[in-house]
Amino acid sequence: MSDFWSYVWLLVWVFFFMIWIMILWQILSDLFRDHEMGGFAKAIWVIALIFFTPITALIYLIARGKGMAERNMKAAKQMQEQQAEYIRSVSGGTDPSEQIAKAKGLLDSGAINQQEFDSIKTKALA
Predict the structure, then answer these.
(1) Roughly how many angstroms between the first and final C-alpha of the chain, as a whole number?
(2) Are 49 and 106 contained in the same domain?
(3) Model-level pTM?
(4) With 90 as the cut, is the pLDDT of residue 121 above it?
(5) Are residues 68 and 20 both part of a single domain?
(6) What angle do CA 67, 20, 53 make, to 5 degrees?
(7) Smallest Cα–Cα separation from 45: which of 62, 21, 27?
(8) Domain count within the chain
(9) Mean pLDDT of 117-124
(10) Tens digit of pLDDT for each residue in 17-67?
(11) Cα-based distances in Å from 95 to 92, 106, 111, 121
C-alpha cells in the first residue's frame, strides 16, 4: 500500500512542478515580449527569477499581471489578423462573386478554358 501512495504523491508533485514550469515559461515569454522594458530591467528580472524564483514570480504576476494580459491579448489578435490575411491571400479573396468575376475575365481573355472556369466556380461556391 505504501508504494501506491508514493506513486500518488509523485504524480501530485510532478503535476505541480509542470504548473510551475508553465508559470515560469509564461513570465519569461512575457518579459521578452514587452518592448517597453529595457534590456537592463529584463536582465534584473531574469536574474531574480533564477535566484529567488518563488517570490520573484509572485511579485512579477502581481506587479505586471495586467500588462501581461494585455500583451497576450495583443499577440493573439495580431496572430489572428495574420492568419486571416494569409487565408485571404491563399484563397484569392474572400468574396466568391469576386473570384468568379476574375475567372470570367480569364475565360473571356482565353487564358483558361470552360472546364477550368467551371472548376474555379465550383471551388468559389463551395
Answers:
(1) 61
(2) no
(3) 0.60
(4) no
(5) yes
(6) 75
(7) 27
(8) 2
(9) 84
(10) 999 999 999 999 999 988 889 999 999 999 999 999 999 999 999 999 888
(11) 9, 17, 22, 12
